[in-house]
């Protein structure tokens, strides 16, 4: 074959390969765009919870407002209407759970901190049922310290809260944990790179470090130093056949840190954020350069920019004007000609043109003690145009509650924390001043050292869409199964009827399917409603003589595991120890005064009090007997009498009962055979109760001998377990073969925050007023047409107070305002 023909075939083959590569990457770029658009349409949900204080005392109330939003645009979610808010102790037990309903963007709630709870660090957790289809890392999780008055000491404060004291000299001499983060992901020979540095260990986080970068021949390449939050930056161009390390001096001794090994061939992604625009520079030292590479920039899945490169250029640069972009994290990714991600870089967009201002006017600039204050609130954009929104407000004594403008808030959470991995130290610092070059520079360094957490490209592009195991909830669903009465475990299709005996009675019917499954709803109600569920083998009016031979079992409400992982938990940045100590001391005074006030206003004879206590115990026993199928149990365990019962598993609890042995998923009474197990009156297997914990159990009855005689096939005794929520949802369950009668609890209604009216002379003199939270308003609706008005009275304490307001506009812009006033 002539040389010319052979070269021609080689050229044609190369052109074919190039064309094939072009088609593959072009199709891939379309795949990226389609997947991002799908992600945006099928958006995740986010929740943020504002609390009235950052810490509490046993016996206090936690007041909160939960905001539920579309995770892409932060507007009100069009999916879920039901929010679960939980308080989890340090033993991974849910000590309290509230089920809230919202038909706009927020819902108010509260927790009463039980006097029986132990002091410690609790986690406030919030989620929707739909959010459970993704990792629990995306649930809202916030640490809340709760202290006990008796146990609290100055040392308690020092041990249990982040330290603000100076670092000890001896710890300064230790080798710091220094990490390096090349921009885009890798160092590449011959390409200039920016490298972020971060001191990981907290003890050395605030230490100022200066060092040099050296090559393997000990030649100095460049210098570096760190800034606030242990962050720093340097630039250099790695060369082939060379390696590099960082050198710092610690107490007169050189400490060396090896830099990541440069790649011989690769890509570089460099971003410069100057506020008004973001400059993106892409480069490569490969033979084909950037040919058939694909660059995409997006915010939470919404595409901002895309570029498919068709030439063999080795570099290009683009500018993105930020004036039209929303504030928040933007992700920039570069894919090679094979469709593989090569570089990724995060940058924070802060667009002051999109900021919304909270305008706050007060009737009293320097109010006196016990004086009424009226606040007028509205929202305005940069042009002074009115904006509508939903806000919450809290007022705290700054001598007792350590709050400042750099606190975590709805703005820092939705725009920053919820889209990054790991803990952001002092996030409010980056939002305190508009267009501050220093803070923008430091926030850019934060972007270096964190990664995109909402999804990974491999998961988004190539893995099938996750199965939606958890449905969107728009209200209360009452569901269950129908079983043949005399054929244990056999599910049958049956006619079912639901009757709600509320103020406006409601009744509906449905046929359970072939697996016996039925459901009614969604319903929205707040009070516990007397409810009937009935079933018939055939139609309700059928003459069939065995029409009632059907048993009904309602579904358990299965909640997420209470175990809380250490990722994406909002942690307090730091508390001032003296302020915390003041808070606890003041709480002691309030507790003592409240006790004294109670004794003075209720001067009852001792015998009367004893009679009242006995009556309460009798009422409790009557309530339990009303639920129990047998009023004469051999043994009964009431969870109200078991200290820290919420921390125990069902097997732990059973082993505390006389004669009962629960081991390796088997249960026996006095070493007999398998007893009959009843869960809220329904016979179940051992495997059906393994999920139960003490926090879900109301009481347990053990029946043996004559006590068990009324239960069929109970020669080995009976273990009767009654849950607090009966089948996950029910109260006071009464069961017959074809009917269940119970009370179904509605959504939680938040209590009203007590704020005294000092204009009332009786109220003014009846009780001391030394509140740590002066005022709490969980929901303030702002319209474009008028200002919102909020009023409260100052206390009798002359001090400095903080007004903290946060929330969302109807267009999804998070807003935050921190201001102070003094009482003379």
TrEMBL record:
It comes from the Bacteria. This is Plug domain-containing protein. The lineage of its organism: Bacteria, Pseudomonadati, Bacteroidota, Flavobacteriia, Flavobacteriales.
């Amino acid at each position: 074959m002539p040389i010319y023909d052979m070269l021609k075939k080689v050229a044609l083959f190369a052109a074919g390969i190039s064309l094939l590569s072009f088609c593959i990457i072009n199709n891939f770029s379309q795949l990226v765009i389609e997947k991002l658009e799908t992600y945006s349409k099928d958006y995740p949900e986010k929740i943020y919870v504002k609390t009235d204080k950052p810490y509490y005392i046993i016996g206090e109330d936690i007041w909160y407002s939960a905001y539920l939003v579309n995770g892409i645009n932060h507007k009100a979610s069009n999916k879920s209407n039901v929010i679960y808010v939980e308080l989890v102790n340090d033993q991974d037990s849910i000590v309290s759970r509230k089920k809230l309903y919202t038909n706009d963007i927020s819902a108010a709630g509260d927790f009463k901190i039980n006097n029986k709870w132990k002091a410690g660090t609790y986690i406030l957790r919030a989620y929707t049922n739909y959010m459970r289809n993704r990792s629990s890392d995306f649930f809202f999780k916030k640490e809340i310290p709760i202290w006990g008055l008796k146990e609290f000491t100055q040392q308690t404060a020092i041990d249990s809260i982040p330290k603000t004291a100076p670092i000890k000299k001896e710890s300064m001499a230790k080798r710091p944990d220094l990490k390096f983060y090349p921009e885009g992901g890798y160092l590449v020979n011959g390409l200039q790179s920016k490298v972020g540095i971060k001191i990981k260990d907290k003890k050395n986080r605030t230490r100022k470090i200066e060092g040099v970068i050296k090559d393997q021949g000990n030649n100095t390449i460049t210098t570096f130093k760190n800034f606030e939050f242990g962050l720093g930056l340097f630039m250099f161009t790695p060369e082939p056949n060379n390696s590099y390390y960082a050198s710092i001096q610690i107490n007169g001794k050189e400490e060396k840190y090896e830099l990541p090994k440069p790649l011989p061939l690769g890509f570089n992604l460099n971003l410069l954020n100057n506020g008004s625009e973001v400059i993106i520079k892409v480069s490569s030292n490969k033979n084909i350069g950037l040919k058939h590479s694909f660059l995409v920039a997006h915010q939470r899945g919404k595409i901002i920019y895309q570029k498919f490169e068709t030439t063999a250029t080795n570099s290009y640069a683009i500018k993105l004007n930020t004036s039209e972009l929303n504030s928040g994290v933007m992700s920039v990714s570069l894919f090679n000609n094979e469709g593989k991600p090569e570089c990724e870089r995060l940058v924070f967009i802060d667009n002051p043109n999109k900021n919304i201002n909270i305008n706050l006017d007060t009737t009293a600039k320097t109010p006196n003690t016990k004086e009424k204050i009226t606040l007028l609130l509205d929202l305005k954009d940069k042009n002074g145009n009115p904006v509508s929104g939903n806000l919450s407000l809290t007022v705290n004594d700054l001598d007792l509650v350590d709050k400042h403008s750099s606190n975590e808030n709805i703005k820092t959470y939705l725009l920053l924390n919820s889209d990054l991995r790991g803990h952001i130290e002092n996030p409010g610092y980056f939002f305190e001043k508009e267009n501050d070059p220093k803070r923008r520079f430091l926030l850019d360094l934060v972007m270096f050292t964190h990664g995109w957490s909402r999804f990974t490209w491999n998961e988004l592009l190539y893995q099938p869409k996750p199965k939606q195991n958890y449905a969107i909830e728009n209200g209360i669903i009452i569901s269950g199964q129908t079983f043949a009465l005399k054929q244990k475990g056999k599910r049958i299709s049956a006619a079912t009827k639901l009757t709600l005996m509320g103020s406006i009675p409601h009744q509906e019917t449905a046929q359970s399917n072939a697996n016996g499954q039925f459901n009614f709803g969604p319903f929205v109600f707040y009070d516990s409603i007397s409810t009937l569920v009935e079933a018939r083998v055939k139609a309700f009016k059928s003459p069939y003589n065995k029409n009632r031979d059907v048993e009904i079992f309602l579904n358990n409400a299965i909640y997420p595991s209470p175990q809380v992982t250490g990722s994406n938990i909002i942690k307090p940045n730091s508390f001032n120890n003296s302020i915390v100590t003041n808070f606890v001391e003041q709480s002691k005074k309030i507790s003592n005064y409240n006790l004294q006030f109670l004794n003075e206003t209720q001067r009852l004879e001792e015998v009367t009090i004893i009679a009242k206590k006995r009556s309460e115990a009798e009422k409790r026993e009557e309530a339990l007997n009303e639920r129990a199928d047998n009023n004469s149990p051999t043994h009964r365990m009431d969870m109200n009498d078991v200290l820290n019962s919420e921390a125990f598993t069902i097997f732990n609890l059973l082993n505390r009962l006389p004669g009962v042995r629960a081991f390796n998923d088997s249960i026996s009474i006095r070493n007999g055979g398998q007893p009959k197990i009843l869960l809220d009156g329904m016979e179940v297997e051992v495997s059906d109760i393994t999920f139960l914990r003490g926090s879900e159990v109301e009481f347990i009855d053990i029946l043996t001998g004559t006590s068990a005689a009324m239960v069929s096939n109970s020669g080995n005794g009976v273990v009767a377990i009654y849950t607090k929520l009966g089948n996950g949802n029910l109260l006071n369950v009464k069961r017959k073969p074809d009917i269940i009668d119970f009370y179904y609890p509605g959504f939680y209604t938040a209590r009203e925050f007590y704020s005294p009216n000092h204009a009332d002379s009786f109220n003014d003199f009846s009780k001391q007023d030394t509140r740590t939270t002066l005022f709490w308003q969980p929901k303030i609706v702002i319209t474009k047409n008028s200002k919102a008005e909020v009023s409260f009275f100052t206390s009798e304490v002359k001090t400095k107070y903080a007004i903290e307001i946060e929330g969302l506009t109807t267009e999804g812009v998070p807003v935050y305002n921190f201001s102070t006033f003094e009482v003379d």
